[in-house]
Amino acid sequence: MKPITCWLDFISPYAYLAFEHLPVALQGLSYRVDYRPVLFAGLLKHHGQLGPAEIPGKRTWTYRQVQWLARTHGIPLDLPAAHPFNPLGLLRLAVACGRDGLANRYVCETVFRHAWRGGADAADAARLQALTAQLAPARDPSGDEVKAELKSNTDAAIAAGLFGVPTFTVDDQVFWGFDALPLLRAWIEGDAWFADPRWMHAGDRPGAQRPR
Question: What is the mean pLDDT of residues 170-195?
Fold first, then answer.
């Protein structure tokens, strides 16, 4: 059984799509998934990047593409009333429902669908209160222990070289994005292509400096 870590932030529509499609993408394989919430904004800050929804043209494209992907894969998706939204309340709630920075699939599914189905405000205080009552976390989502675990998850993601969500890690390999699910499946199946230099040495080349 292959252990997979899924690094996610509920702010990402691609993370939602990948989460929903994962059982289909890996159907028939033997695997276990640990779901680890992280603060995507922390990854962006570390790498000096903007999120897709913070770049005007890319923002429009992102919303169009994710709705198309949802349609073609049969995944219900409604854009939330406001996006980007502050995901900290949702992330801390998910962590508070688990232990050691992990959240189970039911919790992640419930939080993702809170954000990406129905078209409401994902960060609305009253809705967050109702969601908290529904999930009944064992720990206080606003407590220092939960905050520290979320920060530890984010720091661990940065240390592992992660730069976005969703990311799946297995056998020290990194698979980023919804469109990486076929690659992830091929890796678990032992596809011989991954021994090819085109995979193993893809990054072993000098980079040119950006023109100024």
Answer: 97
Q: What average pLDDT does the chain have? A: 97
> Count of residues for the chain?
212
- Percent of the chain whose pLDDT exceeds 70: 100
Cα first-last separation, the chain:
49
Q: If phi over 0 gives left and psi between -120 and 50 gives alpha, with beta otherwise, what is residue 162?
A: beta
State both tokens at 37: 């919430």
Domains belonging to the chain, first-starting first, are: 2-200 (3.40.30.10)
Backbone angles phi, psi at 32, to 5 degrees: -135, 140
> How far is Cα 6 from Cα 28, in angstroms, rounded to an integer?
19
Which amino acid does the sequence have at 59?
R
CB 196 within 8 A of CB 183: no
Beginning with the edge strand found earlier in the chain, give each strand of the sheet holding 167-170 in spatial order. 31-37, 2-8, 167-170, 173-176
pTM over 0.85: yes
